[in-house]
Amino acid sequence: MPSDARMLIAVRVVVVTTLLMASLIIQYTVTELLPINYIYLTAVVTYALTLVYIAFGQLVPSRRANLLIQVGGDLLVETLLVYFTGGLDSPFSFLYLVSIITASMLLYRRGGLLAASGAVILYGALADLMYYEILPLPEQSLVSAVPWTSSRLYFNMATNFAGFYAAALLTSYISEKLQKTFEELDVNRQNLAELRAINQNVVDSIPSGLITLSSYGTASFINPAGCAILQSAPLAILGKHVTELGFFTLEGWNDVRVSLAAGAIIRDEIEFPARDATRNIGFAVTPLQTLDGNPSGYTVIFQDLTEMKRLEAQLRLKDRMAAVGELSAGIAHEIRNPLAAIAGSVQVLKGSASLTQQEQRLMSIVLKESERLNKTIAEFLRFVRPQERHPVEFDIAASLAEALDLLMNSSELSTEHAIRREIYPVSFQLMGDADQIRQVFWNLARNAVQAMPHGGTLTVSTHVHDDTYHILFSDNGRGMSDADLQRLFQPFRTNFPSGTGLGMAISYRIVQEHGGRIEVVSRPGQGTTITVSLPVVSHAGVMVRRPSGAFITA
Questions:
Q1: pTM for the whole thing?
Q2: Which residues contact 47 (CB under 8 A, 6 or more apart)?
Q3: pLDDT tens digit string along 364-373?
Q4: What is the CATH number of domain 392-553?
């Protein structure tokens, strides 16, 4: 049974039960006997029809049929009530309008006209039967029998019939308008829900952070990307003033509000202290307005520029290295040729028997420094003009182990130093130039040992992740400052007295040419971790290229 049909049954039962209870109270509290026995009969008929409605609803699922049979039953009950309360003089003839209005609201114009026609037929038939005394007035009646003239009968019937059809037409017209309005409202509500879902999806999907501020600068909304960038939960952001979020000072925020009121757009960058490291965040502040154009707050759109800053630093490093290479290659050649002549001449002069011991010692110093200078120039030329690579498939784990064995047996490793190996897997094939990769291992391991002048532990570990072979060199030495990190891969920039400043630059170039990258994490006094990431050979034997470059994290 439809829900509105069940509701109509429930309302009818409540009304009739209330009327029946009121009648009983009147019957037993008033000393004078009133003619209300017909109310009991009406209630019994109503309850009986209710059972019929319920049974019909179980058999016939049609909403229209269920409502029509209930309205028809109500018209019969109302006719019975009108008959018992005076017939043509009954004050309850208005009850027909209740059924007509109900039918018009639930079944619209056709249902209202059918109900009005049913009321006209029943009321007209009752009036004719009683006028021609075919159906006598009941003995117990609220009104006394009054003779009716034909003109009065026709006028009464005409006014009632006009009222029935007028109520049906007007109510059905309003109901249809309401129905159309409800349908349009449902469509608009659905469109609004879809638009809101799309808007929410767009806000949640954009990679930039978004914070909306009230007119006082209090955060009222933040999207998921904003929480990820700030590394905070929404509850830690919402309700806080923008000055508490680190974007502005109180004085700066007051200046920003004045600038925004003048129509300016504020753009700036800040260093935001995050859990892992300091992040560079770029943001823009714009005024927020309502649909009427009235100011309602502000929006803060921000992005994490840390990676972009790293890429910019990498690009600047490449530009500097390219400029140094182009400029210095020619200078190195020009220096190397006269240096060879000077060294040869000094060697000849040193063999002269007329030289004193002091002169011999000075000649030895000149030769030694010439040899050292020639070695530096040779390394520099190797850097600016790297050797041709000969990529082959080799065991990179074994190559790493050999480089560490060589370091352990060298004079650079003292008894205060220790090397801990965590090489897994113990054997791994990689495509590349084995000699150049071994040179990278040697340079990084030597630098780590030199960073621990008073002893310490160098931990070398490996792992494979996402088709990339990672080698980590971790020491617990003196670490590096931000300035040291910025010049780490620049040629002729070294933190060690005996270094040439080319080892890290050469390592960077080799890793870059192998399609890998170097990542450095360091803190002053807390040691340094350098990670070399090299692409793994695919099953087809083709090297998997990765973004190359050096990424430095303080």
A1: 0.44
A2: 13, 16
A3: 888 887 887 7
A4: 3.30.565.10
